[in-house]
Specification:
The protein folds into three domains: 8-114 and 243-311, 3-Layer(bba) Sandwich (FAD/NAD(P)-binding domain), CATH 3.50.50.60; 117-239, FAD/NAD(P)-binding domain; 329-408, 2-Layer Sandwich (Enolase-like, domain 1). The protein contains twelve helices and 26 strands. It has helices at 16-27, 53-56, 68-73, 119-122, 134-140, 157-168, 189-201, 248-252, 296-311, 381-389, 396-399, 406-409; strands spanning 8-12, 33-37, 76-79, 84-88, 93-96, 101-103, 106-109, 113-115, 128-129, 149-153, 172-176, 205-207, 212-218, 221-226, 231-234, 236-239, 243-245, 261-263, 274-276, 281-284, 290-291, 322-327, 330-336, 342-347, 359-365, 368-375. It has a five-stranded parallel sheet. A five-stranded parallel sheet has the order 9-16-10-11-12. It has a five-stranded antiparallel sheet with strand order 22-23-26-25-24. Helix 1 (16-27) runs parallel beside helix 9 (296-311). It is globular, with a radius of gyration of 23 Å. Residues 322-410 form the Reductase C-terminal domain. Its cofactor is FAD. Keywords: FAD, Flavoprotein, Oxidoreductase.
Length: 411
């Protein structure tokens, strides 16, 4: 099917990937019909601020990606609060919750993921929260108030960002992490240790290698019993232990699915006219294996790949994976391989300085720069991306010398 024969593109999921796909399609001169289907009532919005600014500055924070007028200007039919219940891959139709059927020439699944559940905590009913969408974030605004005792289960990115927000609101915060490190899946030990120290300096009680044996309600308190028998009492518990991709539609449609929807380098599923992008997709990587990447950048990247492939436009080679987190007024940015063999510091790690501290970490394997981290040094991130992309050899006398301008070292 040529681009001139594509009359209708349906995008399921009105989040980052779905919105980016619309912008890319129109930017590449697609003139056909676009239907955006979402199960939320909202217009497409950014998710990174949900754990930070939406909680700290709810009246000032704008997270909308595409306004109602912008959707009209782009010629997009937006169906909100009416999710998809079935895909008929052979007939190339989808069925909505209200029973309506829509036909498509190309379909993009950008359904994201749902919070991985802790049923024993969910069973308590009240005072237990997760954070995945705008309603979840808004619900936490009145909960995170000065003096409140908050237990956060999970020491990943969301857990630490929420811990930071809760401390900014003068809550008493405890983080419970089963693993031996905070952000253990996405951060090397040298940076994880800094993150941990910053949280503890800010007054967060972080418990590592800690398991939960039980939980219960005692009046208006949540009582969490640890494996060693210690009881922690809180006014509220928020848990964030990862997500489960919203892949059931693809499973029911007979598409190739492992943990998520498997896609090729063009973001096509096992059905040539059905694509997937963002948190719901697991893509074939350079390592020869399918892997899923939960980042804002990856959602945009895969949406762009989908749009360009549909339009017959060559898409660029992907940059090294990049993401960021803001915690306690500190900006951390990560790029490339976080499992590098060794990490070397350009600058000085000084936890006591907090927001004033600024440095760069080089991740090196077999003498080659494969990863990088900036701490309050966002301007250097583009240089790290270039060095990793060109597989530059690491030269300590150059890259660790603060008298040399990193920008001038990257050619």
């Amino acid at each position: 099917m040529s681009q001139n024969e594509i009359e209708t593109i349906v995008i399921v999921g009105a989040g980052q990937a779905g919105a980016s796909a619309i912008l890319e399609l129109r930017a590449n001169k697609y003139e056909g019909k676009i239907i955006l289907v979402g199960d939320e009532t909202h217009l497409p919005y950014e998710r990174p601020p949900l754990s930070k600014d939406v909680i700290l500055k709810p009246e000032e924070t704008k997270i909308e990606i595409l306004s109602e007028q912008k959707l009209i200007d782009l010629g997009v039919e937006h169906i909100a609060d009416n999710g998809v219940v079935k895909i008929n891959a052979d007939a190339k139709t989808i069925e909505l919750k209200n029973g309506e059927t829509l036909a498509f020439d190309k379909l993009l699944l950008a359904t994201g993921g749902a919070a991985r559940r802790l049923p024993n905590f969910d069973a308590l009913g009240k005072h237990v929260y997760t954070l995945r969408n705008l309603e979840d974030s808004q619900a936490l605004v009145p909960v995170l108030q000065a003096g409140r005792r908050i237990i956060l289960i999970g020491g990943g990115v969301i857990g630490l960002e929420l811990a930071s927000s809760a401390r900014f609101k003068d809550c008493q915060v405890t983080v419970i992490e089963m693993g031996p490190m905070v952000m253990g899946r996405s951060s090397p030990r040298i940076l994880s240790e800094l993150l941990l120290e910053q949280q503890r300096l800010a007054g967060v009680d972080v418990r590592l290698s800690t398991s939960i044996a039980d939980c219960k309600l005692d009046g208006e308190e949540v009582v969490v019993t640890l494996a060693d028998g210690e009881e922690l009492r809180a006014d509220a518990v928020v848990y964030g232990i990862g997500i489960v991709p919203n892949a059931q539609l693809a499973v029911d449609a007979g598409l190739d699915v492992d943990f998520a929807v498997k896609v090729n380098e063009n973001c096509q599923t096992s059905h040539a006219d059905i694509y997937a992008a963002g948190d719901v997709a697991t893509q074939l990587r350079d390592c020869g294996q399918h892997r899923r990447v939960e980042t804002w950048e990856n959602a945009n990247l895969q949406a762009g790949i989908f749009a360009r492939h549909v339009m017959g436009v060559e898409h660029p080679v992907a940059n090294p994976a990049w993401f960021w987190t803001d915690q306690l007024d500190i900006n951390y940015q990560f790029v490339g391989d976080m499992a590098a063999a060794e990490w070397l510091v350009r600058g000085e790690i000084n936890p006591a300085q907090r927001a004033e501290s600024s440095f760069v970490l080089f991740g090196v394997t077999d003498g080659v720069i494969v990863g990088g981290i900036t701490v309050n040094a966002a301007k250097d991130m583009r240089h790290l991306k270039k060095l990793i992309s060109k597989q530059a050899p690491f030269e300590a006398e150059k890259y660790l010398d603060l008298t040399q301008d990193l920008r001038k070292l990257v050619k």
